[in-house]
Every structure is written in structure tokens, then in C-alpha cells.
Amino acid sequence: MQRADLEQRRRERFKRAVVATVAALTVLLVVLLIEGCMTEHAKNIGATTGGEAAPAVLVVTPAPKPAATLAAKPVAPAPVATATIRTSTTPTSLGAEVIYVVKPNDTLVRIAKLHQTTVKALKAFNGLSSDLIGVGTKLKLPTA
Predict the structure, then answer these.
(1) CATH classification of 57-141 is 3.30.450.40, yes or no?
(2) What is the pLDDT of residues 51-81, one digit of tens each?
């Protein structure tokens, strides 16, 4: 009787060890899978944005001198100094409107996240009825 109890306890310990090993391996595989997906996602984002984000260049256009210091001939009103930010990324600024040109692997969700807006706002702003967008499509981005 004692021998049967001892064998039963050994079997139970063996079962627990097997279950613990399988659980540990499962957790390890899930962690590695998540890490691999995150690395692949980072590679995809880097490839679609051209690697590293390009630094923004600030170009300031000075206002011309007041008309009183120039010759006495009539002069059009002087424009105010303007500042334009140019980046090598796809969005371009046309006045108060920002245009984004769709690149390969872009989705409305990704574009919305990049520009801190929602898919619903993008679709409404551009009059889209579906989530399908083509490469090269120019999307107007809602500005805050």
C-alpha cells in the first residue's frame, strides 16, 4: 500500500513538472512572437517613412522694408513675415489645408494615428465612402 502511494505521488509530481514546463515554453513563445511582431512593425514603419524621420527645416521670409523708406512711387501693401516649415515627409501644406499622399502599405487607420485624428474624420473630410485608398491618392487632413 505504501509503495502504491509513493508511485502515485511521483506520477503527480511528474505531471506537475510537465505542465509547468509546457506553460513556461508557451509563455516564452508568446513573448518572442510579440517581440518579433513589434520589430517587424517598426521595420515596416521605417520603410514607409524612408527610415528615420527627416528633420524639419524652418524657412523664414522677412517682411520688406516699409514703403516710407523706399522711393516715393506707389507700392503695394507689404506682406507680413511668414514662416514655412518644410519636411521631406509626404504631407504638404497649402495654406490652412494639409495634403497627404498615400504611400504603399498605408491604411486610413495608420494615417489617422500619424496625424492624431480619426478614420471617421478622414473619411468625412475627404468624402470617402469606404476604407479603401489607392497609392498616390491625395488626402486632405483635418487641421486642429
Answers:
(1) no
(2) 444 444 445 556 565 555 545 555 555 555 4
